[in-house]
Amino acid sequence: MRLDLRDIIHVPDARKDFRFQLDLSALEFYGGETPIVHPVLVEGSVTNHAGALMLEGTASSLLELRCDRCGRPFSREKTVALDSLVAQELEDDGHDGILPLEGTELDLDEAVTTAFVLAMDTKNLCSDDCKGLCAKCGADLNLGPCGCKPDVDPRLAALAQLLDKEAE
Known about the structure:
The chain is mainly beta. It is built from two helices and seven strands; from the N terminus they run βββββββαα. The chain has a five-stranded mixed β-sheet with strand order 2-3-4-5-6, with helices on one face. The chain has a two-stranded antiparallel sheet with strand order 1-7. The radius of gyration is 26 Å and the shape is elongated. The termini are far apart.
């Protein structure tokens, strides 16, 4: 969506609201996964604060993820705050966080896509206490313990054999 700001550029305290949906379902993360299957709802405003244009709003969507520990699919709501200064001209490229206008228009699709992608988590867990999978048999440890025997430290193997004989 391109937002035309000509009505507010030179008018102090003027404000332009926006609300739209953005499709980011083609973006791939995590080795080919596409977690943003639902539309991203974007809403907010651009306000002229004494000649400085300020973009404020949110972008939110329900993500369809896969747990990095146990592999189970799960859903999680993701909301990203949009908070950027908007400028008609940039003197050099070293102004991170400042969105450039193209004439009198702001490319909201690009700004929202960049903010949403940068806010994606690098690790996704279905819960903070996810136990993951057994390294030996692959059983989901969230469902209960597996039947694998614990590994014996090779330095203590002789003691383990004595304990096994004693148990018999």
